Amino acid sequence: MPFVLLYLVVEVVAVVALGSWIGFGWTVLILLAGSVLGLMLAMHEGIRAARAVAEAARSRRVATAEVTDGMLVAAGGLLLFVPGLVTDLLGLLLLLPPTRALVRRRLVRSAEEQNPLLRTARIRSEGPIVDAEVVEPDPQPGRTGAPLVIEGTVVEER
Known about the structure:
single chain, FxsA, membrane, FxsA family protein
């Protein structure tokens, strides 16, 4: 409860300070423009993050950075929906790739400090190389939907 109260006080002080500096009309215009711009940026960055996750899946690598980026973009979009000047600024910062990369590195480092197995999993996910070839067998006469056979070898570097 104290956090919500602190948030409300900070937002009211920020809006009143900006309003007294540039005027009420300009303050409302800045709040609306920030929300519209932020939502457009959130949509663009969200699509980009989804494509990056799909590309990581296609190339068979762990999509740690891509998934984290997607979560940060979602958090930025959520902050833009919450009314207020401070939350709009924080949301816009999470949508910008350079600041999002800083936040992502900090989150990953913090998570790995809390649970060292996460670091081990990330390092191991970067290690093994999988070489696979898809071979489709000839279907037997009268039989449809023959099973897909995947032949491959896993090469692990240690």
